[in-house]
Amino acid sequence: MTAVPDQRSTAASPAVVGQAADEDLRALFGQSIAVFAALAGPTHVVEAANPAFFATIGEERARTGVAIAELLPELADQGFIALLDGVYRTGEPYTGRDARVVLGTGPQVREAFFDFTYEPRRDPAGKVTGIRVIGVETTQVKQAQRLMAEHRALVEQIARQAPLSEVLEGMARSIEDLAPREVFVSVLLADPDGRHLRHGAAPSLPDFYNQAIDGIATGEGVGSCGTAAHRREAVIVTDIATDPFWDDFRELAGRAGVAACWSTPILARDGSLLGTFAMYHRTPRVPQDTDLALARIFTGTAALAIERHRIEQAKAAADARARAAHDELSRAVRAERGLRAEAEQRAAAAAELTARMRAAAAAQAATPRPGQCQLGGSPGCTEPAEIKIADSWGDSAWGCPSHVEEAILNVRSVFIANEELGGLAAYLHR
């Protein structure tokens, strides 16, 4: 006869089933990027958690047997402890989507986003004994969405030809908002010759600092930005207090409250220098992958904005030169027309004057020569009249050589006339 197994000996008790379920969940989430924690009792003591949970809250706080409010005191004012209390009290699970949580305090504080579920844990009698926390951090997705939105807005600004200062300042503020830790962004613009850097945007750095570095030279050892511009490659200074690149600017950086500076050159498509993009920090710091990704994305955006601005500037300058050339040509045409009209007027006046002179000379030819000089003025002159002179208006007189010379030197348009045709007429027909 075949033995029939005793079903009672193989069936697990509810308590065993519950423990097995918890163990299964721990195994499932052991190496997962999803966070998992098993909380016990009304104070939500951390009974177990996977590595992702401890990595999220900080490895320095990785311990069990502690109430969640004690382990993560910053959660108290964010509503999460109250949610746990509600699930424990009602036995109803709770699901949150894209929930914002601030983790850590002081320099270690960071903003994170999670999709999470609070599920009640029950004993064999169905009584709630704790809560399972299962969540997936969506911070990177959230930041990517914000990044794309900010980036799209900046590109739209560039497309509609917004002022460069407006685009760069908006970009700086976007990065400062998107960065996981406090950062100050600065953009410097290269002179056309690439030898100096000018202030572009730095909305969160002190004015005295921006003014002091406005116009710094590009060169080896000239801070982070001057060196990055000179080398055409990123320069990461993690501690300004000890880095030789900052010897000439260390006191200035101390007054501005910055202790680290990572600078990336902004290059045009042809490799020419457009400027530098820098990220400053209050404490010495090594860049993370997210920092470097932000720098790469927005350095490219800054290059697009600066190149577009330079193209518009060049176009405006070319238009201005074209307008100036057109205006100059118009002035030259008007001047040429004026000169032509003036020449025609002078030719007509000269013809009229020639006719008058000829008439005057003909009239004088019939006039007998006086005996004495007529040019002596009121005192008179007794010298014989030897030379006849005339002017452009047809007047003429006879005089002695000395008075004729004096008249020619002092009276406008006076010339020596002959008795037949007068002055120039005789000269032209000599």
Written overview of the protein:
The protein folds into three domains: 13-137, PAS domain (Beta-Lactamase, 2-Layer Sandwich); 143-311, GAF domain (Beta-Lactamase, 2-Layer Sandwich); 367-428, no CATH class. Helices cover 45% and strands 21% of the residues. The protein has helices spanning 7-10, 14-29, 51-57, 68-71, 80-90, 139-159, 164-178, 207-213, 223-231, 250-256, 289-365, 401-410, 423-428, and strands at residues 35-40, 45-49, 94-103, 110-122, 128-137, 184-190, 196-201, 216-217, 235-237, 260-267, 273-281, 387-390, 396-399, 415-417. The strands form three sheets. The protein has a six-stranded antiparallel β-sheet. The protein has a five-stranded antiparallel β-sheet with strand order 2-1-5-4-3. A three-stranded antiparallel β-sheet has the order 13-12-14, with helices on both faces. Strand 3 and strand 4 (110-122) form a beta hairpin. Helix 6 runs parallel beside helix 11 (289-365) and helix 7 packs antiparallel against helix 11 (289-365). The termini are far apart.
Task: Give me some keywords for this one.
alpha+beta; five-stranded antiparallel β-sheet; 45% helix
**Helix vs. strand class:** alpha+beta
CATH homologous superfamily identity of the largest domain: GAF domain
CATH architecture of the largest domain: 2-Layer Sandwich
Structural domain count: 3
Report the biggest beta sheet as strand number plus sense, adding barrel if it closes: 6 strands, antiparallel
Return Rg in Å.
49 Å
Helical percent range? 40-55%
**Which series of helices and strands comes N to C?**
HHEEHHHEEEHHEEHEHEHEEHEEHEH
